[in-house]
Known about the structure:
Layout (H helix, E strand, L loop, with lengths): L1 H12 L6 H14 L3 H38 L8 H8 L2 E7 L16 H11 L4 E2 L24 H10 L11 E8 L2 H5 L7 E6 L2 H5 L1 E4 L4 E3 L23 E5 L8 E6 L2 H9 L5 E5 L6 H8 L6 E7 H5 L8
Parallel strand pairs: 1-2, 1-10, 8-9, 8-10
Antiparallel strand pairs: 3-4, 5-6, 5-7, 7-9
Amino acid sequence: MEAQFEALSELVKNGQKLNFGQDFFVKFYQAFLYSDRWQQYIKGVGTTLLVTAIALVLGVVLGAIVAMVRVGYAQQKPHHRNPILGIFNAVAQVYVTVIPDKNYYLADKQYPILDYARLDEMIQAEIPSVQKINLYDKLHLEDYYRTDLHWKQEKITDVVDTLVQSMGQQTNTISDGWQIATEDFVGAYGAASAWKTTPDKMIYRTDPSIERMQVYDYERKQNVSVYAPEKIGGMDDYDFYLWGARALLTIQNPECHNGKKLLLFRDSFGSSIAPLLAEYYEEVTLVDLRYVSASHALELLGDTEYQDVLFLYSAPILNHGDSLRFG
Length: 327
């Protein structure tokens, strides 16, 4: 087939006119088969479908939670109203942020990536009442671990500033208080590699404010520390941050007295950023919809009033949105 295309193309170059069948073959081959262009079309369609799926999942999750709160608030009996539904219904500001996968910063090296601009447009169209916070220009490839998918806590101070300022607060300069948790962190990518990889250094922030924070684990029904040194050297060193996978946690900051509380719907990326966000709130509650439904989480939280609600999810998790429990 390639030889026939080359032969017919040569005839065209020499000024010879092709019949209908020959002309159709040359144009078809050139459009779809030449240089494997059909693969580019498939990748393009696949990316479009993937972006659509992510936006749809996020829209369904947020829409379902908001609808659940609206309906629950409306159906309450006059003298038996739940304060949390009232706060969600009338006061709380809702924000959404998509954490880009680190291949977003490898686009110039021909790595396949999502069309994030299109994703943002679709999120805005699906949930216009929610404020979108853009983090794409606040991160760089070196802000992620080389052997893992997660971001480095010491590299996301600009992200924290952007989130906090977008939610209406002034930020403080974070320049000290950094310590090394381990110099031998090999994340999920490194562990899956057939080659021996150079470990990453895991750094964390601690200061008197963070040290005084109290973290309540609703699964274990007890208070735990912000960081878990005993997790270093285990199955996943990243579990050092807030003890890894936890359905529901609440961080209380006795050093903050601004009357503000944050409800953070998150995935594993939230474990390392939550202690930094908690410096700006009296209380931060983390809900991981992979392990607990939104309705059950709100039931457990009772009458807590939140001023800000932030949905902070990475693109890979949204790509597998069937794992999120929003019922």
